[in-house]
Amino acid sequence: MADPREQAAPAAQQGAQQGAQRQSPPQQGAPQRQEAPATRKERTRRRLAETATRLFTERGFDLVTVAEIAEAAGVTEKTVFNHFKAKEDLVYGDDDAFETALLDCVRARPEGESALGAVRRFLLDRYGRMAFDADRRGRAQALAAIVTGSPTLQARERRIHARYADALCELITAEEHADPTDIRPRITAEALLTVHRGSIASVRAAILAGVPDDELPGRAITTLRTGLDLLAHGLDDYAVRTGG
Amino acid sequence: MADPREQAAPAAQQGAQQGAQRQSPPQQGAPQRQEAPATRKERTRRRLAETATRLFTERGFDLVTVAEIAEAAGVTEKTVFNHFKAKEDLVYGDDDAFETALLDCVRARPEGESALGAVRRFLLDRYGRMAFDADRRGRAQALAAIVTGSPTLQARERRIHARYADALCELITAEEHADPTDIRPRITAEALLTVHRGSIASVRAAILAGVPDDELPGRAITTLRTGLDLLAHGLDDYAVRTGG
DNA sequence: ACTTCTATTACAGTCACTGTATTATCTACT
DNA sequence: AGTAGATAATACAGTGACTGTAATAGAAGT
User: Fold this and answer.
1) B187 to chain A, minimum CA–CA distance in Å?
2) Residue contact B182–A226, C-beta within 8 A
3) CA nearest A195: which of A120, A133, A106, A125?
4) Is B49 helix (H, G, I), strand (E, B) or coil?
5) Crossing angle of helices A134-148/A40-59, nearest 10°?
6) Burial status of residue A193 (CB atoms within 10 A of its CB: 0-12, 13-18, 19 or more)
7) pLDDT of amino acid A130
8) Interface test with B, best of A107, A190, A241 (most B CBs within 10 A)
9) Option in A186, A197, A231 nearest B235 (CB)
10) What's the pTM value of the predicted model, to 2 decimals?
11) Residues near A45 by Cβ (< 8 Å), separated by ≥ 6?
12) For residues A39 and A25, is the Cβ–Cβ distance under 8 A?
């Protein structure tokens, strides 16, 4: 759930990841519907991700070996690594999508809007669109449990967010004509991404605590607003030591 | 350099890390001077860290195997892992010290001071005390080069900082009687640690760029002040899109 | 010298991940 | 339909971080 949208989407599988073969299997003649034929490669990839998720849910990420996943999916271990360059990628599919969308939103913000304002719009919009049916809820819950239980996956998630922050930082640096030693773009970018992370964490906690579906978007949005307001107004009025 | 002090200090080696043996080899009768006898364990540990650093500097963290380090230090591979639970720990010794000091400073802040204010005092004090002789500069430079060249180490560093942030977050949550779903303590903690990270990055960059020793503390402090001021006053006035 | 720790080693193994060469399978073209 | 050419999967052999356990060597104290 490096992207809130992943909660409400089939989590991960769209397109190849290696980038090397991004150009090779293009949309062939047939318009590719969601449940459509799908190439062999795509089928295998999906099967692997699903098998892995099932096993991770049953026993935890760190207690399942790649060899087991391969066997359960009826392929060789090597095949798993042909599709996913690391075990963690079986959970986090590829999602440049989030990064791209975030950057586009910031880049295209109207005059007078701050980077924070743009990110606020972006995230509120995304979380506002969150919607759950039983199936999605189930997947989101499984994912939350898996990630919560695995330091390895949490580390990977930090890495993903760090990448987003880097990209945002770069954008802000360019826009502000800031020199590379100016720390402000970095602080801004990282702080904004922290709010995103916090929202994810709060949604996950709510999901695992059994909060009903229709309350989830509200919680996420509250979390978001609280965090962004704090950053917008400044931290120096928060956590002030009082006598007693 | 998860701790600015590490730049100006013998980087890493004071005390055991496993915690399990924290109580076992206590200060024995003799007052332990810096260059003093040191137990066999301590000597081996230091030798390993030094050997490793040397090799990492020569060829890069990821291109040196633990087996090579062991051989170069005249011990078994297993011995390395008896002393350091992961390869990365050969670079980042143990430093609960930073965490403890940071938390103490926040905990003990005077009435009317915000968490940000306390962290500002803390960091300014630390960076203000930075001092370099040729030897320290050399070590800092080697460390900067090693870390800059290794994604593995950067990931580890993020993990360390995440731990600091968790601890600070917990402290603020307790102080503010915030309920666990309140995101503000987390945002505050992470944002403040981001400033720390940014300062480290700026010092490293300066060191690698050959900036003279006596300018380094000034740069660090400027970076710190810039970052903290931004967070103190709020992000909503920064990176505002202007016409054109 | 003898016991008692503790540090180190020997050894055997697990698991993520890589590279290469080979076989199976699928697609396109004639 | 049949076959060439790509593509997916496999077999195989390895590297490297890391673990556990039992045996040995070294330092310290009685």
Assistant:
1) 6
2) yes
3) A120
4) helix
5) 60
6) buried
7) 87
8) A241
9) A231
10) 0.87
11) A13, A16, A83, A84
12) yes
